């Protein structure tokens, strides 16, 4: 009798483990109340290793996206995902790869790399003149610790604008590349751009939790840039005696 009960219990345990391992992702995700801005399309696979044809947040989409979920962090109330999404070879696509950690009060990341089309990013900035940009922005985040109640705790990484170009009157203007450092300051995410670069740009953007960022800096277009670039610079204000234009949002 005890032997029979042991085998029944063991069989039941194996069956439960099998169900957990094969738990369909679409059934689990449907049980959660996702933010209205977040939209997942055609989810397949298991909750441990699944994919979606597209995930979009506030009109920014990654297609497709795959994930692997680690089981051990769940014991501590954390969701740890190994993500891979988009096509890194398509310059007009957003792509992402790396490790993301989520909990009720915190978001973290390590070795996370994100590619964003420059035209997508710059279209969301309140620039005084419309700018049609080319190239890609790359965010390379080595470490991120962000608490929703207290803001940015730790951020180490860098950013780049690769093959930077803006559309001119007759042709695209090549601006080269720009580099930035990512960090935390007073619980805000900080993006710092320093010279040298073709725009003579040095600036600091501070991004608080409400995303109402501030940007302060200055720039001085290189003399070899087309005349239209120097003309557009005048929309940002009067240049100082050193030839630099103020930059403030």
Report on the architecture of this protein.
By secondary structure, the protein is mainly beta. Helix content is 15%, strand content 48%. The protein has four helices and 14 strands. Strands 1, 2, 3, 4, 5, 6, 7, 8, 9, 10, 11, 12, 13 and 14 form a 14-stranded antiparallel sheet that branches. The longest helix has 20 residues. It is elongated and about 90 Å long.
Topology:
Layout (H helix, E strand, L loop, with lengths): L1 H20 L3 H5 L8 E8 L3 E9 L2 E3 L2 E5 L9 E7 L9 E8 L3 E12 H5 L10 E15 L3 E17 L4 E14 L2 E6 L8 E6 L6 E6 L7 H7 L11 E4 L1
Antiparallel strand pairs: 1-2, 2-3, 2-4, 4-5, 5-6, 6-7, 7-8, 8-9, 9-10, 10-11, 11-12, 12-13, 13-14
Looking at the structure, what is the overall shape? elongated
Number of strands: 14
Mean pLDDT: 88
User: How large a portion of the residues is in β-strands, by DSSP E?
Assistant: over 45%
Rounded Rg: 24 Å
Q: Detail the poorly predicted runs.
A: none
Calculate the terminal CA-CA distance, rounded to whole Å: 78 Å
Residues in helices, as a percent range? 10-25%
**How many DSSP H or I helices?**
4
| SSE arrangement, N to C | HHEEEEEEEHEEEEEEHE
Largest sheet: 14 strands, antiparallel
Strand pairing plus helix content: what structural class? mainly beta
Main attributes of the structure:
14-stranded antiparallel sheet, 4 helices, 15% helix, 249 residues, mainly beta
Task: Kindly summarize this structure in a few lines.
By secondary structure, the protein is mainly beta. Helices cover 15% and strands 48% of the residues.
């Amino acid at each position: 009798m005890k032997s029979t009960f042991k085998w029944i219990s063991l069989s039941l345990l194996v069956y439960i483990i099998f169900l957990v391992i094969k738990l369909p992702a679409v059934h689990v995700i449907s049980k959660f109340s996702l933010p209205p801005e977040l939209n997942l399309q055609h989810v397949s696979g298991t909750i441990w290793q699944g994919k979606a044809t597209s995930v979009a947040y506030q009109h920014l989409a990654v297609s497709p996206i795959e994930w692997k979920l680690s089981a051990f962090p769940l014991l501590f109330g954390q969701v740890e995902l190994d993500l891979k999404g988009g096509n890194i070879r398509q310059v007009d696509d957003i792509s992402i790869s790396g490790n993301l950690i989520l909990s009720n009060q915190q978001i973290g990341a390590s070795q996370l790399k994100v590619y964003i089309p420059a035209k997508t990013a710059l279209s969301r900035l309140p620039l005084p003149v419309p700018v049609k940009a080319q190239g890609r922005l790359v965010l390379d985040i080595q470490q991120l610790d962000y608490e929703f109640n207290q803001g940015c705790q730790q951020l180490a990484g860098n950013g780049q604008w690769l093959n930077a170009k803006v559309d001119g009157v007759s042709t695209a203007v090549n601006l080269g590349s720009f580099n930035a450092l990512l960090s935390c300051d007073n619980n805000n995410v900080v993006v710092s751009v320093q010279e040298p670069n073709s725009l003579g740009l040095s600036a600091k953007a501070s991004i608080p939790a409400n995303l109402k960022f501030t940007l302060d800096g200055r720039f001085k277009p290189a003399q070899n840039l087309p005349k239209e670039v120097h003309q557009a610079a005048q929309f940002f204000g009067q240049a100082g005696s050193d030839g630099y234009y103020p930059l403030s949002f």
